TrEMBL record:
Transmembrane annotation, as ranges: 14-33, 148-166, 186-205, 226-246, 252-277, 328-351, 357-378, 458-478, 484-505
GO cellular component terms listed in the entry, alphabetical order: membrane
Protein known as: Transmembrane protein 39A
Keyword Membrane assigned: yes
UniProt similarity note: Belongs to the TMEM39 family.
InterPro entries associated with the record: Uncharacterised_TMEM39
Record bears the keyword Transmembrane helix: yes
Domain of life assignment: Eukaryota
Length: 527
């Protein structure tokens, strides 16, 4: 081979290398400029490019750090499947399952409390406050007018019972008397004892009205207490004086009939004097002075979202309701006892009278007194306050067929539960059935309060049915009666029953209309 040719070939290769170096540097420079330009573009740029630029996340290609194995969280089979590189062999059967998260070792009690409070706030936010419709104003008798009505009714029924016992046959030609009643057989001291018991509240109510009108406001509570003590002394003195004269003409056993209600009074009311004179006696905390006179504060309802406040309000209303019912039962039995039973106890042994008719009269008087006291002590406004409190209290229904798969919460007394909530309390499961539920699950007092006052028109309907039944029975007896004193007695009882029937029917009609509209509103709002 010619040496010159070898030199020329080496020169050609050297020239080729020198020609390729600028091309490589140009390509590298262009790539650097293109990369710099793409990195300087804004992320939300609105520029339009013919080619789509793909910006990769710098951390996308990195391998995630290997988590340290926590003892007790991975089984041995899983430990054997862990590769040295940090990956795990996942079988096909478990490929669709989410990997188990390691437990949070830093979850302390404070974090748990925060989660519990968060659940409570979430549950409370779903509670719908009940909607209330105001009850229209219904005229009601005052205490003084009611005491006048009650006194006239009991005195007349007592007089009718004396007619049943001491009637005469004055219309016969051979009759030795010209009067319809044998008054000489009636013991005047028994009549005085009965009149003192039946008229004590009327006297106290009249004198109390005078004190409220003329006495200074600052001295009114003291004057009322002194008035009760003074009247109590006068009443006891009158009763003792009548009892002394009754003992002169009657056996000592009959004296126990007169004193029997006193033992019942001490059992029910203790040594308190107020219930003996005032049927609407309330604790001193429920009274205040306003514009120169003492005003008895009626129980009021406060729409609260605090469960503790709702339960406390229900407890106060329940106590007031029970006190009124205790007063109603005692007063109605006391009036019927002295107006219908005591005259029969002191009748002469030789006197013949119709025991069946006297007993029937006694029962009618007791039922009528009971309904009259109910209408007076439980007006519609008062029942509406109890109804509103019952809606906020709510009710829990016990779930019998419980299973462990029911999603429930532990009942907490600081939470207000929504309708349909499932809770666990005292190893039992309960479901909320009220619009707003602040009651304690399994508390029978709360359950009875809600059952009675959730719809007071049901209670009024029951009383209305009792009054209608009494009127129908008296009408049937009146149709079958032929004696003049029977007819006179039934006419007077029917007249009193018609007045009470009108009041009950009016109250029931108003409550039924109002609570029916209220229920429609609750259904529309999702309550």
């Amino acid at each position: 081979m010619n040496p010159w040719d070898k030199v020329v070939g080496d020169d050609n290769r050297i020239m080729s290398v020198f020609l390729l170096i600028p091309a490589i540097l140009g390509i590298a420079a262009a790539w650097s400029v293109q990369r710099w330009w793409s990195n300087t573009l804004p992320l939300h740029s609105q520029a339009v490019s013919r080619r789509r630029k793909i910006v990769r996340d710098p951390a996308a290609g990195r391998r995630p750090p290997v988590l340290p194995l926590i003892k007790g969280t991975i089984s041995r089979s899983e430990e054997s499947s862990v590769m040295p590189s940090g990956r795990r062999n996942i079988s096909k059967a478990s490929s669709n399952k989410l990997p188990a998260q390691p437990p949070n070792l830093f979850l302390n009690d404070e974090t748990h409390k925060l989660k519990t409070l968060g659940q409570a706030d979430n549950a409370t936010s779903r509670v719908i406050s009940p909607k209330h419709i105001p009850v229209p104003s219904i005229p009601q008798e005052g205490n003084f007018k009611f005491e006048i009505t009650m006194f006239v009714f009991t005195v007349m029924t007592s007089f009718l019972q004396f007619i049943h016992l001491y009637r005469s046959v004055w219309w016969l030609p051979q009759s030795y008397t010209r009067y319809t009643v044998n008054f000489y057989l009636i013991d005047p001291y028994v009549v005085g004892f009965i009149a003192t018991i039946l008229g004590r509240r009327l006297v106290y109510c009249g004198l109390s009205q005078i004190l409220k009108r003329w006495s200074p406001v600052s001295l009114l509570p003291i004057l009322e207490q002194l008035l009760r003590l003074l009247l109590l002394g006068l009443v006891l003195a009158s009763l003792v004086w009548c009892t002394y004269h009754i003992m002169q003409n009657h056996p000592i056993v009959n004296i126990f009939y007169l004193c029997y209600p006193i033992s019942v009074y001490f059992i029910l009311f203790g040594l308190s004097i107020s219930p003996f004179f005032d049927v609407m006696s309330l604790p001193p905390l429920l009274k205040e002075e306003c514009k120169g006179r003492t005003v008895t504060l009626k129980p009021l309802h406060n729409c609260s979202m605090s469960p503790q406040a709702i339960r406390e309000e229900v407890e106060v209303l329940k106590t007031d309701f029970n006190n009124r019912m205790k007063q109603i039962l005692f007063s109605s039995v006391l009036n019927a006892y002295y107006a219908g039973f005591v005259p029969c106890c002191f009748a002469q042994s030789f006197l013949y009278y119709d025991v069946y008719w006297a007993t029937q009269h006694l029962v009618c008087v007791w039922v009528e007194c009971f309904t009259m006291y109910i209408v007076h002590c439980y007006p519609v406004k008062y029942c509406d306050v109890l109804h509103r409190a019952a809606l906020h209290l709510g009710r829990w229904a016990k779930i019998e067929g419980r299973t462990s798969h029911i999603p429930t919460h532990m009942w907490a007394d600081s939470m207000l539960w929504h309708q349909g909530a499932l809770v666990k309390h005292c190893r039992e499961f309960y479901k909320a059935e009220g619009i707003s539920n602040a009651a304690e699950p399994g508390n029978q007092a709360h359950a009875r309060f809600y059952a009675v006052f959730n719809n007071p028109s049901v209670l009024l309907c029951s009383l209305l049915g009792l009054q209608v039944s009494l009127v129908i029975i008296e009408i049937v007896i009146l149709v079958q009666s032929s004696e003049w004193y029977h007819i006179l007695s039934l006419i007077f009882l029917l007249f009193a029953n018609y007045c009470t029937l009108f009041k009950l029917f009016r109250d029931y009609l108003v409550c039924w209309k109002v609570y029916k509209a209220e229920q429609m509103i609750q259904d529309k709002t999702g309550g």
